[in-house]
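chain below, 211 aa
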Amino acid sequence: MVRGVYLVFGGGAARGAAAGPMTGESMIKRLLQDSFSKPREAAQEVIAINLSYDAIFSLFLAMVCASTALMFTIDFILPQSAEAVEILGAPWKICVVIFVVTTAVAFGIAWIGEKLQGLGDFKSIMALMAWMQVLQFALQIISYVFLFIMPPVSAFFQVALIGWSFWIFITFIDVAHGFDNMIKATFVSLLGSMLGVLSLAMLTTLFFLGA
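prediction:
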């Protein structure tokens, strides 16, 4: 998985005009650090790399599969620890839901942002969403570690991680659209996410009808 991320960003670094002489490995390390401490700079660099659609969706699908595999592994060790596993059951259903919902959200955020004089297009938003999936996977691992070693406080820690992830996500969208206004970026993100909610509702209904 790490090698897959390395290949995607290593190739992107070779193409990106702003990537400079950094290797793919050092770029990934810096992006991870900046994403959690300086998300604005991280978002600018991800966009500047100018990944191809192939690279974006390859990274995104790889991380979705990795997250789903981790989720089912933990649920096997600690039954009923992952709600999505209990609701949808099959790994492929969870992968489909994450893929469709995230793509719909990216489209919604790009379209609504454009209507509000935003500069971001679907490709740049989707690139950030793919990288966000990498961050979510890292946070997912951390939350499961806390679930094993400190169960009583794991729920509070997960809430903190959700808040942190939301702040990073909103900052990414603010940078992509060039708003320089976190309130406006939050508004666009919430409206765009409604398309994802509708997609989730339709997919869940289809899965239950087909069960």
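The radius of gyration is 17 Å. The chain has nine helices and no strands.
thats it, cya
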